[in-house]
Specification:
The protein is mainly alpha-helical and about 110 residues long. The chain has 2 domains: about 40 residues; about 50 residues, no CATH class. It is about 40% helix and about 5% strand. It is built from 4 helices and 2 strands. The model has no long low-confidence stretch (mean pLDDT about 85). The structure holds zinc ion.
């Protein structure tokens, strides 16, 4: 028999024991494991506007790639001048449309 549990908007599953816990809870009341990331942590992520402006003004050197943590691709863009600007234009479209993610796969913070 499988149990289907739907969480309320202020609940989520504990990553350690799988029990439902409140999102605001720092520790899981079932297993005592500290939840990660802590709920009080400041919102992380790279800023969308900064990435967009970096791409517009310094895209040929891949500076927006360094900013979002894509160091390898950034070096490649730096060495190829953003594939003569083509890569820069593609990145600009991706950032402007919100498809672009940082190195952790997280969308840029608006
Ligand atoms: Zn737990």
């Amino acid at each position: 028999m499988t149990e289907l549990r739907i969480t309320a908007p202020d609940e989520q599953f504990c990553s350690a024991c799988g029990q439902v816990v409140k999102k605001a809870a720092e520790l899981c009341p079932h297993c005592g494991v500290r939840r990660f990331p802590p709920p009080y942590a400041p919102q992380e992520g790279r800023d969308w506007l900064v990435a967009l402006l970096l791409c517009v003004f310094t895209g040929g050197w891949g500076v927006h790639r360094f900013y979002t943590g894509h160091i390898g691709i950034g070096l490649l863009q730096l060495l190829t001048c953003g594939m003569c600007g083509i890569w820069t234009i593609i990145d600009l479209i991706l950032i402007a449309t919100g498809v672009y993610t940082d190195v952790d796969g997280k969308p840029l913070r608006r």
